[in-house]
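New to this. Help decode both lines:
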Amino acid sequence: MFNYNDCICDKCGEKFDTKSDVVVCPICGTPHHRECYKELGHCVNEDKHKDGFEWTAPEKSINFNVSVCPRCQAENPKDAAFCESCGISLAPQGNNNSKSQAIGEFLGVEIEKTPLVSPILPKSLEGECDSVSYKDMAVYIGSSAAYYIYNFKRKQTEGKNFKSFCWSAFLFDGLYFLYRKMWSEAVVILLISSLLSIPNFIIIGSNFGYISSNSPLLFNGIGVLATICYMLSIALKIFLGFIAIPRYQKKVVNDLKKIKSQTSSNNEYYQTIIAKSGPSKFVIYASIAIFIPYLFM
C-alpha cells in the first residue's frame, strides 16, 4: 500500500497523516480525504481524466535533520538512539563508539569508548525493581531483553500469582542456566540430570552391545528404575521451566547491585555492565562441539 503521509489532498489542501482516512480515485489514483470525496461526489481531477491524467506523488526533499528507521521507516530526530516508533537501535552497525553513545543516550548517561554488543532494547522501560532500573537490566541482559523485562514487570505486578513458563529452560535444562550464566544452579541441575540418565544409558549401552548381558549393571528392575528416572527428569524440566525467570531476575538484580558496590563512578558502572552484558556464547559453541560427534556416533 502506498504511503500518502505528507502528500496533499487536492480538495482541501491539507496534508495526509497516519490517521487520515484516504480514498483513492480508481481512474487516476488521486488521493482524497474520505469526507472531501463524499462532499465532491467525484474525483477532484475528474475534468482531467479525458486527457489521460494520472496522479503522481510529489518528490520528497531529503531532510538531513531526521533519521529514518531501517525497520519501520519512521522518521526520528537525527540524534535519536532508538526509534520512537518500534524501539530498534539506530546506532550504525559495526561502529563501537556510536553504539556506546547510543546506549549512553538510552540510559541517560555519558559512556566512554568501550567495545560492546548492541542489544535490541525494549522501548518502554520506566521504573525499577529492588532499586535496580529496568534500563540497566535491559543492557545487562542483552539478547531477549524485551522478553525478560516484560516478565520481570509481570512478576513485580502479580507477585505470588505470577506464573510464566520458560520453554528454553524446559528444553535445555542445565544448558539454559549455563547460557544465562547461572553457574551454581547449572552445576546442580546438570549433576541431577546426569544421575537420572544413568539407568537409561545402561539399557541403551546393553542394546548396542557396549555392556555385556551378564554385567551386574543389568540387575532385575533396571527397566522400572529407568522409567522412574525418566519421569523424574521430565518433572525436573517442568519445575525448571517455572522457576527459570524468577531465578534469572534475582541473578540480574544481585549482579547489578554487586557491580554498583564495586565501582566508584557511574561511568565505570555502566562500562562494567556493558562489558559483562549478554549470555554466554561459549556455551553454544561448546554444546555444538559436544553434540555433533554424539549424533554421528
